[in-house]
Specification:
Chains A, B: Its EC number is 2.6.1.-. The structure is a homodimer. Chain A has 13 helices and twelve strands. Chain A is an alpha/beta fold and about 400 residues long. In chain A, strands 2-8-7-6-5-3-4 form a seven-stranded mixed β-sheet, sandwiched between helices. In chain A, helix 3 (about 45-55) packs across helix 10 and helix 11 (about 285-305) packs parallel to helix 13 (about 375-395). The longest helix of chain A has 22 residues, at about 285-305. At the A-B interface, helix 1, helix 3, helix 5, helix 6 and helix 9 of A face helix 1, helix 3, helix 5, helix 6 and helix 9 of B.
Chain lengths: ~400, ~400
């Protein structure tokens, strides 16, 4: 009774695997600053629970497999804000961005197909690709270059006849890299030339700072048939536990394939969809407020991180992550030290070692990712603890 | 930009595909009795929404990937009612029984592996198996024999070296067949001899009538390592739109594989889990009440169906479905007639043609499934409309 090969190839979440050790540190009385996971401390807008509380159907019935129209319409109006024009049949509601990606891969990837993936990248893509039998092929980027990948040379160097799609997470997790509309156009041209799908993971869409415009592959009409946008309420509205996302595409064949899978799993929970509809109807001022909040956190964390001797990091333009390179041979060993041996006034810090964000073996061992999901004061203190911890680690 | 082979092989839900035609009939002013889909009209117990309404965390955060402990503990106590003893690590919360099955297949099935499936069966198993590259191999059953399949001969006849698992939906969808504990033991012995997993889909567990005892593969300690129980709140608590289910297994390796997939998709929505915990804590009297309610509906529908000249059906012992054989060559054609040409006092009826519930080509063309999810009066009228419709169809 063996398990499937695919599940044997999968890894446990490298972001979550240090949780038991952090738990132990807390039980021993240490305060741990959690910069390791993208769980914001920002309050979920009250309209989410208010909408749910006022739901009064007597029977909690199956919803439509593609999603409830109230939510689809709210999403259509949300995209209109950015000049993008969708119809209900272009919007499929999913259980978070995660299911959107799982279903997308199952719909387009055959055993052995290749998917281009700028590395470092959000680790769960490993799982989504492996479920569909696909192979992630890295476009390797560097801390020294701000993790930039949008050049014809870099992308075409790894295209083969088996390449089926390119994934673009923008604003990026874990790098914070934000694609400009011109870079998106370039990727669109490459995709056209090599007949690729573009999987555009834009769940951090509004989190673009320093005057950067909100961009989306959905703004490019000339490649509308090959663009698959993945969206989610998790980060934008600090509603990770709502598990509501969607796939947006004007490719009717693709959406038809997705519907077959969607009907198999029946629907996304009704009440969360109702709550999510309220979130998507928040005014534009909400995004401005969030942008300002996260930008302040980024600045606080970045300023403090740059005080670490030997740190390599270009100021990231978006999302709520910073990946930095440090003069450390083995980041996991350093993290273990922070959680088990180090403390400063009874406090320590947790981050995500970046190795798990790479496909290429050996890369990322000297990098870490922090999520700036805590308030400015905590972000500063967390980054400071990394610096103090590193001093102690070096002097061990 | 082709779609994946798997998605091309999948079919749209045969239960849902007549919906647009039924919709048209309604727009034309006909009343349609929906006996086609397992969406009960029973009110969801109020404790579900009450628990959700009283949830007052400020941040809707990610839940644990395996589920919230409040729900796991409620499920543990629920199983204790039947003398089954589980720990939290044996319980993984999923987005309904659907995700439980998808994840199970992804965890144990390799490309080309075979899964034994008594036919007719719940059609979405096609989708779940295809997602994992597995092949459903039918154990064919007959209306004349009450769709009985639990014999050594029938099961062993289709076992090959590629067989990895046997699926048992009991009480059955769409047949209403209920396995006795002795039959489960027999299946357990066969599974042991041929080294198979048993996927025990027991979402209708309490819906067993005429003095039949509640049975579960979880009651058999000697095969605990090969049993994977799929459970759900959808039918038992009339909470289909909550999308909460679980996988229950004492096989630690299997549960570890499942956790890798679970971490990839992060978690099941928090508020639905909180609501589901309240449902699993309902007193045993709730099940008695539901059992009585559905048994009355079954009796009403069965009595009325048996008035149809030429009908073949053994009274089903459980779940809330009846599959019957009628003197009709093409049930889809008959259904089209009912929805587009027939009416009796402005009313007609919709059922699920059974062909989609079979793997073997050609089978089920003269069978239909009804779900007795409406009140007795409506069930009687629905069954009567099938009889009247058939008369009209024959006289056409």
């Amino acid at each position: 009774m063996e398990l499937s090969k695919r599940v044997q190839e999968m890894q446990f979440s490298p972001i979550r695997k240090f949780n038991p050790i952090a738990q132990k540190a807390k039980e021993d009385g240490k305060k741990v600053y959690h910069l390791n996971i993208g769980q914001p401390d920002v309050e979920t807008p009250a309209c989410f629970m208010e909408a749910i509380r006022s739901f009064d159907e007597k029977v909690i019935a199956y919803a439509e497999s593609g999603g409830i129209t109230v939510l689809q319409d709210a999403i259509i109006d949300y995209f209109k804000m950015y000049g993008m024009d969708y119809k209900r049949e272009n919007i499929m509601i999913t259980s978070g961005g995660s299911e959107a990606l799982t279903m997308t891969f199952l719909s387009i990837i055959n055993e052995g197909d290749e998917i281009l993936m700028p590395e470092p990248f959000y680790t769960n893509y490993h799982t989504f690709a492996t479920e569909a039998g696909g192979k992630l092929v890295p476009i390797t980027t560097k801390a020294e270059e701000g993790y930039h990948y949008a050049t014809k040379e870099k992308i075409e160097a790894v295209i083969t006849p088996k390449t089926k799609a390119i994934c673009c997470i923008s604003p990026g997790n874990p790098t914070g890299n934000v694609l400009t509309l011109d870079e998106m156009k370039l990727i669109g041209e490459i995709a056209k030339e090599h007949d690729l799908y573009i999987i555009a993971d834009e769940v951090y869409r509004e989190f673009a700072y320093d005057g950067r415009k909100v961009t989306s592959f959905g703004m490019l009409d000339e490649i509308a048939d090959r663009v698959i946008i993945v969206d989610s309420v998790s980060k934008r509205f600090s509603a990770c536990g709502a598990r509501v996302g969607c796939v947006v595409s004007k490719n009717a064949d693709f959406m038809e394939g997705m519907m077959k899978i969607a009907q198999g799993r029946l629907c996304v929970p009704t009440v969360d969809q109702i709550g999510a509809a309220a979130l998507y109807r928040l005014p534009a001022s909400y995004y401005d407020e969030m942008r300002e909040e996260y930008c302040g956190r980024r600045d606080a964390a970045y300023e403090e991180l740059m005080k670490i001797p030997g740190v390599i990091c270009q100021k990231p333009g978006g999302s709520f992550y910073i990946t930095v390179k440090l003069p450390v041979d083995d980041m996991e060993d350093f993290l273990m030290f922070l959680l088990t041996e180090f403390e400063d006034n009874g406090e320590t810090v947790m981050f995500a070692p970046a190795e798990g964000f790479y496909i290429t073996p050996g890369l990322g061992k000297d990098e870490l990712r922090i999520a700036y999901v805590l308030n400015q004061k905590d972000m500063r203190r967390g980054a400071e603890l990394i610096r103090l911890g590193l001093e102690a680690y070096k002097n061990k």
